[in-house]
Specification:
Butyryl-CoA Dehydrogenase, subunit A, domain 3, Butyryl-CoA Dehydrogenase, subunit A, domain 2, 4-stranded antiparallel sheet, alpha+beta, 4-stranded mixed sheet, 44% helix, binds flavin-adenine dinucleotide
């Protein structure tokens, strides 16, 4: 493998050839479709959407240091980072628990960003207490027939497939009768009903199953042993978003510093409002400290020196940090932060208001802040119950 310096050079010249200027704006929602499609294909052709996966499953076959160098180079030019539930949660779980046949079937399309997945965990009566889930899967021949309801399923209206927790043994104790199963969303017996979020978007849905079918060979891990698989996937979910790869992704049109500078103004080269100046400095320090802490924690977890549940610490601090970022922006905006739409407000102001509303959810999804604190207490600090 090339030295890190040589590899960085290679990435830089490859990026120059493949990344048009119009995409060098970070992970914005309004990226132009056609160039974005070409960028995704270019990344996939190198295996760089999933740089550390083995090449036989469509990955880049890179070790951790080269993968980190790749991500650093991409972030440095504000390239869109392509990720999904498939790449960050299901794929790593399949690499560990999937059969060879499941890996061959599902990993290559995930690594090419071709299949959209959604996560069927939560139910109306099972959120924090996830093991209370009631969606049933009954075996009929070589298929399971699925009946029940999921809720808060992000991206369900656009998903091709779902990874889903179902009860395969209703008589077993709560954690023991659960299986982790994959099945297509586009089939009779699956109904999706979008829910609107406080920021105006409708990214998640209720999903109803009434006789939906899943192949028995698509159970991941042992039948009735899905709880272990489910927990591992949650560890991946929490560590991905918890900042092990660096917290806020730069999805906004303007950085927080730019917003605050514009709204508050400068006096003698410093922000005019000393209270906001202090909060901004503390926020920047928190972001950097969290990024470094989670990088260290990630290395320790990989070396077996700490538990993978350390990701809960990252998720908890990250959720607070992104909420605080938007709180600072709102303080700086003052009454200009009260707009929903209309001519009295600039695009950047409206974007921040909606982001403030949207980040209220960050301390809920993937396990609420209280649940993360419970995990940290029990499994990281090993405090007795
Ligand atoms: C934007 C968003 C996207 C989501 N996407 C998905 C998805 O794609 N797939 C999916 O399956 N789910 C998804 N969820 C659901 C999410 O996982 C649940 O909302 C979350 O786990 C909390 O469950 P609940 O809503 O049922 O709240 P509850 O579990 O009813 O919790 C209510 C309150 O009680 C507190 N609480 C509960 N138990 C304890 C405890 N033991 N100790 C201390 N406090 C406790 C909670 O912290 C919370 O404040 C999403 C949620 C949001 C907001």
């Amino acid at each position: 493998m090339a030295s890190i310096e040589e590899f960085k050079q290679e990435v830089r010249s490859w990026v120059d050839e493949n990344l048009p200027a119009e995409l060098r704006v970070g992970n914005r929602r309004d990226l132009p479709g056609e160039p974005l499609g070409r960028w995704i294909q270019a990344l996939a052709s190198r295996g760089w959407i999933t740089p550390q996966w083995p090449t036989e499953y469509g990955g880049g076959g890179l070790d951790r240091k080269h993968a980190a160098a790749l991500m650093a180079e991409l972030r440095a030019v504000r390239a869109p980072i392509i990720g999904s539930f498939g790449t960050s949660m299901l794929g790593p779980t399949l690499l560990e628990f999937g059969t060879e046949e499941q890996k061959q079937e599902f990993l290559p399309p995930i690594s090419r960003h071709e299949i959209k997945w959604c996560q069927g965990y939560s139910e109306p009566g099972a959120g924090s207490d996830l093991a209370s889930l009631q969606t049933r899967a009954a075996l009929e021949g070589d298929e399971y027939v699925i009946t029940g309801q999921k809720i808060w399923t992000t991206g369900a209206d656009k998903a091709d497939w779902i990874f889903c927790l179902v009860r395969t043994d209703p008589d077993a104790s709560k954690h023991d009768g659960i299986s982790f199963i994959l099945f297509p969303m586009h089939q009779p017996g699956v109904e999706v009903s979008p829910l609107r979020l406080i920021d105006g978007s409708a990214d998640f849905s209720q999903v109803f199953f009434d006789g939906a079918r899943a192949k028995a060979k698509h159970v991941v891990g042992p039948v009735n042993g899905g709880w272990t698989v489910a927990k591992r996937l949650l560890q991946h979910e929490r560590s991905t978003d918890g900042g092990s790869e660096g917290g806020i992704t730069g999805a906004m049109k303007e950085t927080l510093v730019d917003v605050v500078k514009r709204e508050v103004g400068l006096e003698a080269g410093a922000l005019a409002d000393p209270a906001i100046r202090q909060r901004l400095a503390a926020q920047e320090m928190e972001a950097r400290a969290l990024s470094l802490t989670m990088r260290r924690a990630g290395e320790e977890a990989r070396a077996g020196q700490t538990t993978r549940d350390i990701g809960s610490l990252g998720k908890y601090r990250w959720a607070n940090m992104v909420k605080n970022e938007q709180d600072i922006a709102m303080t700086a905006l003052g009454s200009q932060g009260l707009g929903w739409e209309g001519p009295g407000f600039e695009d950047g102001q409206l974007e921040r208001t909606r982001a403030w509303l949207s980040t209220r959810a960050d301390s809920i999804w993937g396990g609420t802040n209280e649940v993360q604190l419970n995990v940290i207490a029990k499994r990281v600090l090993l405090i007795p119950e």
